[in-house]
Each structure stands twice: as structure tokens, then as C-alpha cells.
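Human: Not sure, check this?
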Amino acid sequence: MISTSSSYQAFLTLKRLWGILPLCFSITGAADSGTQRQEVQYITLFQMRFIVPLHLFPHKFSLKSGVHNATLLRLMIGVITASLLGGCTGVQSTFSTFGVEAEATRKLIVVMVVAGVLITVGVGWLAVHAVRAPPGQLDHARGTQVILWLGAIGPTVLLTVLLAASLPMMKTLPVGADDLEIAVDGKQFWWRVRYLPPDGQATETANEIRIPVGRTVSFTLASSDVLHSFWIPGLAGKVDMIPGRRNKLVVHATKAGTYRGVCAEFCGLSHARMAFDVIAMQPADFDQWLANVAGHAAAVSGPGRQLFEDYGCNGCHAVRGHFTISSIGPDLTHFGSRLSLAASALPMTVSTIKSFIRNPAIAKPGALMPAFESMPTEDADAIATYLMELK
């Protein structure tokens, strides 16, 4: 699955590749005005007509249609390459790894791709050799040897090597008694996250996961409504979240940074907007953060707190230290310190919070949170400001 940021990077790459097009159009205009003469060629690609100066593509030959297929091939290769490379970097990519398991998977992908390329080249060479071989060069005996070595023994050895290289990856990382456990419950369309340290109290947050670098972390994954799938591409493989069942995922982060996780199983209208921020922190910074987030919300002045209660928001959302605990919706105790809003669907600003309060279905169709479209603007602004101050 390619993230929004990765797709944007692909767009930027394509934009750079298509940077030649303004030059093409300017040359055409000059040719029309008679001030410059340059051989050009019309190319239709994806129902768009481009004018390409042929001197930029010296190696060419024409088809009956008059389109230079070497030029078209270069354009197509550029488009395909940019599209593929756009998903190889960024905060949500299996090639931008920050975990032990994801790095092992990346290496295995490289090995498999190289092996696949070698096999393809070998088969192609054999096909060309067989077609171009002089009559009588390949008799029955030599043909039998080719089939035996390249059709039976060779593939068996190669597949055995690839299998041996992949089997160790099936082994789960060991978990110690002192390792941190994080319980994640998938909801439509958000994430309940509970930190269960071996020597401390359970702490609940939502839609954001923080892990320490260099320590083993065990995720306990479950769902209370429909099928979900928990996936942090740069950290580890995806694991299904099944109602009535708890699955385990053990990870070990190796690099600090901010990344992105997603739900990889279609779960409803806002499936594509059910993501979460992943922050890998240095161990000392993580311990300090966990101690802070386990405490009560900061004292907040202003009308927002009372309006939060008046509109019944505390009936679904917990704010420890301010209101009685409720477990229906996401915990908002330290809401203002999170990086994004609505399971990474919106940026964290007063404006987006206010809009989400009044009509959450605009950003997340199918969300169970009720709308407050008749709420006065000043009330929504006060509540949004109150939430931003919960740090």
C-alpha cells in the first residue's frame, strides 16, 4: 500500500520528468512562427497529445503509424520508474526500514528480485540460443542434458537456497519478562492504544504509537468490531486484527524518527483514513514521555472545558483529571501533544478540530461520532482550543 506522502513524492518525480514539455511546446511555437525550424513528432500518450523534439532522442526508428517507438518507450519507462520509485522512500515504505524484521524483509526482497532477474535472463538466453542454433547442433542427448540440469537440478538447487534464506524470517523475535507490551484495539475508524509496562500502570492513548529504540516491544492486537490489519511497513510485517482473537507481533526498532502505520484490511467507508503516527524514540526520551502521559491532563482555564461537558463530550471521551473515565471513544487526556487528528486523517490545528467536531463525517465517512452542526462557531472554537491545551 502506497501512502499519500509517497504518492506525492511520485507526483513530484513525474513533474521533474515532464519538465521537458514546456521546452517542447516553446520549440513548436517558434517553428510555427518561422523563427526556428526543428523536426518534431506528435505522440499520443494517455489520451494527451505531446510534441517531442526528436533531436533529444537520437536513437529511433519509425513504425507504420509514424510514432517513434524508441521515444515512446523512453517516456513510458520514465513514467513507470517514477511511479515505482515514489513508493520506495518516505514514512510509509518497506524500503525505508527502522526495524529488525522490516530490514530482514527488505534484504529478502532484494535476494528474490535478483534471483528472479537471473532466472529470466537465463531462460531468455536459452530461448534465443535454441532458436538460433544451427540445425543438428542440439541432438537428443544434449537436449536431455539441458533439461536435466537447467530444468530439474538447477531450479531445485536455486529454490532450496531461496527457501533456506527465507525460513529464518518465520521465527518470532524472543520476548523477555521485562519487555514492554502495547495492546492495540482496532475500531471503526480509530485505534485504542494501551501501554502495559512490566513495572508500571497501564496507560491509554489513541491513534498514535511511540516505541523505544533498541528495546523489544510486544504488540497484542485485537478488534472489537470488524476485521482490521495492523501494519507499520518500515518496522515489521502486517498482522490481522480479528474479533474475538488476540494476535502477537514482536518488533525491535533500530532508528529514531517519525513514521506512519495503517490499517491494511478494508474495514468500511473510512478504511483509507484509518492510519496512525509512529514515533520511535531514544529509550530515555521514551521513558520520560511514558511517565508524563500516564499522568492527568494539564490544568486548563477558559470556557472550553465546561462546554466540553455541557455538550456531553465527556460521555464518550476520557480526560483523566478533568472528567470521569469513559471508554467509548478515544482517550483525549493528552490530545494536544499528538501529531495529527482523527487517526492521522487531518493536521492538528484548532481549525481542523473545530470542523471535525461540527461534522466528523466530512473527514471520516461512516464515523460513529455524532455531528454537532448546530453548535455555534464560538463554542466549537472554545472546545477546540481546550483540546489543543491538553498536553
